[in-house]
Amino acid sequence: MLLNLDAHWYTATSPDNRDLVGDWILPRAIELTYTAWDLEPFAKDCGYDGPSFKRNEHRCFLLRSELDAAYFHLYSIERDDVDYIMETFLIVRRKDEKEHGEYRTKRVILEIYDEMKRAMEMGEPYRTRLEPPPADPSVAHAPRENTITQI
């Protein structure tokens, strides 16, 4: 069974208690996906009119972790259930333990989940771990030069 979020969820308040969910998700999704110029039409369709983003594995990890934690909240999944769900990703766990000596993905998603929950309970903005914030121009490539040639 596949669960779907109704479209109204994307107009609800986001984990930072400032933006709409869709507006909070979009910069994270754009930075994760728009990493090559051939995706420029997609980025423009999403309302982004800047250069593609540089691929940075640490930033991508944090962007994915924030999105995972946010979607667990959007689906109203309790922390114990998030913990259990994360235990079902055996390949991710093995890879993390080999590369990091721990199940880093689970730990970070749960930490961010908890940070988001505290922020929502306190009515305060969730503060991203990313510096600069998602889709910041400083983590993008330089603007593309016009490549039109004269005949």
What can you tell me about this protein's structure?
This protein has 151 residues and is mainly α. The protein has one domain. Helices cover 50% and strands 0% of the residues. The protein contains six helices and no strands. The protein has helices spanning 21-33, 40-45, 57-74, 79-87, 90-100, 104-122. The chain starts with 20 loop residues before the first helix and ends in a 29-residue tail after the last helix. Residues 1-9 have low confidence and may be disordered.
Output the structural class. Answer: mainly alpha
Helix content: 40-55%
Q: Please report the distance between the alpha carbons of the first and last residues.
A: 57 Å
Average pLDDT level: 87
**Strand and helix order:** HHHHHH
Helical region count? 6
The number of distinct structural domains comes to: 1
Low-confidence stretches: 1-9
Largest sheet descriptor:
none
Number of DSSP strands?
0
Features:
151 residues, mainly alpha, 6 helices, globular, disordered N terminus
Describe the structure concisely for a colleague.
The chain is mainly α. It has 6 helices and no strands.
Draw up the topology in text.
Layout: H1 21-33, H2 40-45, H3 57-74, H4 79-87, H5 90-100, H6 104-122
Helix pairs in contact: 1-3, 3-6, 4-6
